[in-house]
Amino acid sequence: MWGPFDLSGKSAVVTGGAMGIGRGIVARFVEAGASVIVADLDGEAATLTAKGVEGPGRAEALAVDVAADGAGEAMVRAAVEAFGSLDILVNNAGIYPMVPMLEMTTEIFDRVYRVNLRGLAFASKAAAARMIEQGRGGAIVNIASIDAFHPSMVGLAAYDASKGGVVMFTKSLALELGPHRIRVNAIAPGGITTEGTSTPLEESGMTEEEMAEMIERFTGRIPLRRMGDPDDIATVTVFLASGGAGYMTGGSVVVDGGVLLS
């Protein structure tokens, strides 16, 4: 039923796969026939997600901090042990503490980069090494952000810069891995309603009312007049991971309801 976007027989790792966009991606991958490692810092939530998805594929949970040394190798090892191979990596894990740069600490800044860019880069390295060893190519999909191209608001300087790095890393790695038939693409989501956007962020000091007001203002700028949901990103991720995107590499697909137009 998935036609050229069928993922039957493919094995994947989705980082940050327990909630939000990651959970949406896991659900669609399993529906499309893939076997998926749900890699997340919250192992209990990862287990719940793995047990809760339905489809011809299957999912297994792995508790892992993508910012930790050796996390990439651990995720690859889990996929190979569970499914025998690794064909797809989705680098979705990310954090976005809302802290103006004049109030930024080195600890927060470094944590953003360790998760959003460093962890992504070394997970990609480990996955690519395995894909090259297997000799049949593969796909890496990086979840970037529209903030890689235009800042959404004050307080996201570290996040925005890290996502800009993700877009350029995607291009550079695509160039490097092309001869091995490993495609590397990025998705730049706009405003997506997830657990993280529906509750106040710890570092921001916002109340629930202030957060709701901010989201309402942002929604008013979106030409399609709605926030996105995780499935809006998940379906595009299936496309980029599948043979349907077989001649695409080094690109960034903007999925934002048109907000960058405004």
What is this entry, summarized?
The protein has one domain (3-253): NAD(P)-binding Rossmann-like Domain (Rossmann fold). The model has no long low-confidence stretch (mean pLDDT 94).
Structure description:
With 262 residues, the chain is of the alpha/beta class. The protein has helices at 20-31, 43-52, 71-83, 106-134, 157-177, 195-198, 208-220, 230-241, and strands at residues 11-15, 35-40, 58-63, 88-91, 138-143, 182-189, 252-255. It has a single domain, classed as Rossmann fold. The protein contains 8 helices and 7 strands. Strands 3-2-1-4-5-6-7 form a 7-stranded parallel sheet, with helices on both faces. Helix 2 (43-52) links the parallel strand 2 and strand 3 (58-63).
Mean pLDDT: 94
**How many structural domains in the coordinates?**
1
Q: How large is the share of residues in beta strands? A: 5-15%
Multimeric state of these chains? single chain
Number of helices: 8
Q: Based on helices, strands and strand pairing, what is the structural class? A: alpha/beta
Low-pLDDT runs of 5+ residues are: none
CATH architecture, by name, is 3-Layer(aba) Sandwich
Overall 3D shape: globular
In CATH, the homologous superfamily goes by the name NAD(P)-binding Rossmann-like Domain
Largest sheet: 7 strands, parallel
Neighbour order of strands in the largest sheet:
3-2-1-4-5-6-7
The CATH first-level class comes to: Alpha Beta
Total number of beta strands: 7
- CATH fold-type name: Rossmann fold
Topology order in helix (H) and strand (E) letters: EHEHEHEHEHEHHHE
End-to-end C-alpha gap: 36 Å
Can you give the helix content as a percent range?
40-55%
Cα Rg = 17 Å
